[in-house]
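If you are new to this repository, start here. Below is one unmodified record pulled from the training split, so you can see the exact layout before writing a loader.
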Amino acid sequence: MAEQELPGVLILDIGGTHGVLEDIAALLKKHFHLITMKEFLGNKEEISKKIQSVFVFECRPSIDRELLESLPNLKVIGNSGVGVDHLDLKMISSFGVKVTNTPHAVADPTADIGMALMLASARRLVEGTVLNL
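And here is the target side for that same chain:
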């Protein structure tokens, strides 16, 4: 499938402080034509019709009414995190747009950290480390 045939996905940027990680961008490129927010803002008229999805990475780009109104063919917002509390689901659904997330993506690592913190607390590991400094 040629790049121009792929559906467009809006992302904040690739790399940098708040952009999508390079590995994730490479995966997205297999299924989407990536459009950065800078490209979108530089040519809203033409590009807005190509965007069918927004990929939210670390709560960016921010999804507001103005953005939704400017994307007439938007179908889905994919959130890379577990929660969607930073998204106004009622407003988004009023535009007929679906929201997805990855609810189990960090379940095992979170459980591991929780267990490590409980064990460290029970064994007073932090106190022992601080006293030995």
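Two things worth knowing about this chain: The domain at 8-104 is CATH 3.40.50.720 (Rossmann fold). Residues 107-122 form the longest helix (16 residues).
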